[in-house]
Amino acid sequence: MLGIGGSLREGSQSERALQIALAGAAEVGVRVRMLSGPELVLPFYDAGEPGRDERASTLVEAVRQADGLIVVSPGYHGALSGLVKNALDYVEDLRDDRRPYLHGRAVGLAAVAYGWQAAVTTLEQLRTITHALRGWATPLGGSINSAETKFDEGGGASDEKSVRTLRLIGRQVAEFAVTHAA
Questions:
Q1: Domains of the chain by start residue, with CATH
Q2: CB 23 within 8 Å of CB 9
């Protein structure tokens, strides 16, 4: 299980939300890996440039190997972050794989933004991108308003419902991956 997201700020609210969702996936017994913040600082995706730097190659290979993904983006100005969008653009490198793009994989999605409008529109954009990449968006997605909910370093939050939602998203991805593999 691969988690992608967060922001450049270590310990950001979106990174902490991603950690909670990955913990939910781990509860099902799958191995989890997270790529966030500085690991996602990649050159702008260029389909015409076949060469990839080390970080981009690591990301593409991690997506290739993943049986499910969890993507959490901060909402900036009503949209997903450029950091997360650029990382998702690199999935194009899987177009000719045996499992092209995100084919046959569940993708859990959440957006964390300071306000409901940005959280909801960011989640919708993540769903649209997931569908375009042939992924199966989980039935439950998370829109979290960081003006109302604060995540802590211990894997919790001021709103227990947000924690339950994120853990359930992680479990849904893991359960789909385990069932689909069988």
A1: 2-180 (3.40.50.360)
A2: no
Give the list of residues 6+ apart from residue 112 with CB closer than 8 angstroms, or none.
Answer: 13, 14, 17, 72, 73, 74, 75, 119, 144, 146
Over range 136-163, report the average pLDDT: 95
Tens of pLDDT, residue by residue over 7-32, are 999 889 999 999 999 999 999 999 99
Q: Classify 170 in phi/psi space as left (phi over 0), alpha (psi -120 to 50) or beta.
A: alpha
> In angstroms, what CA-CA distances link 38 with 4, 5, 49, 146?
11, 10, 22, 22
**pTM, entire model:** 0.97
Half-sphere exposure of 122 (CA within 13 A, CB side): 31
Q: CA 182 to CA 161: how far, in whole Å?
A: 31
Average pLDDT, stretch 134-142?
97
